Amino acid sequence: MKRLLPSLRAKKRYLAFELISEEPASRGDIVKEVISSASSLLGDITTSDCDIKVLGFENGKGIIQCSHAKVKETRASMAALTRINGKRATLHVLGTSGTVKRATEKFLQAEN
Fold first, then answer.
1. Contact between residue 30 and residue 20 where contact means Cβ atoms under 8 Å apart
2. 45-53, Cβ contacts within 8 angstroms, sequence gap of 24 or more
3. What contacts 40, CB < 8 A, 6 or more positions away?
4. What are the sequence ranges of the domains in the chain?
5. pLDDT over 80 at 110, yes or no
6. Is the pLDDT of residue 112 over 50?
7. In the prediction, which pLDDT does 79 show?
8. Distance CA 111, CA 43 (A)
9. 3-state secondary structure string, 97-110?
10. H-helix or E-strand spanning residue 59
11. For residue 70, what pLDDT band results from cuts at 50, 70 and 90?
12. Cβ proximity of 63 and 55 under 8 Å
């Protein structure tokens, strides 16, 4: 199976985020709540266009992948999230990057 040329692939952006909540949450909980929040705020069609995926989550920080054209909508849906598993919570966006590597280096690695 051949891979698509870079010029034909969909462009992505990576949002580094921090979870601030009353209780710890799993990656699955975050996926469910982010999609639910996006769907109620933006509607199903726009949520689908955002192409939101939670790539990684550990130690209260993670990375969400979205379409490069829908970064504002994705950030808005993350800001609209107020509860995870019935407990108060919010996702604080640390920054946006064009690659997972750069998002991890710049926003997620502990400062020395």
1. no
2. 46/70, 46/73, 47/77, 50/74, 50/77, 51/10, 51/12, 52/77
3. 80
4. 10-108
5. no
6. no
7. 92
8. 38
9. ECCHHHHHHHHHCC
10. none
11. very high
12. yes
**73 contact partners, CB below 8 Å, separation of at least 6:** 38, 42, 46, 50
84-to-15, 23, 61 alpha-carbon distances in Å: 19, 9, 15
Cβ atoms of 91 and 81 within 8 Å: the answer is yes
**Which one, of 104, 43, 95, 98, lies nearest residue 73 by Cα?**
43
Tokens read off for 2: 């051949």
14 forms beta bridges with: 65, 97
The one-letter amino acid at 86: G
* Residues 25-51: b if buried by 16+ CB within 10 A, e if exposed: beeebbeebbbebbbebbeeeebeebe
Say which CATH topology domain 10-108 has.
Answer: Alpha-Beta Plaits (3.30.70)
Digit-coded pLDDT (tens) for 18-65: 999 998 888 999 999 999 999 999 999 999 999 999 998 888 899 999
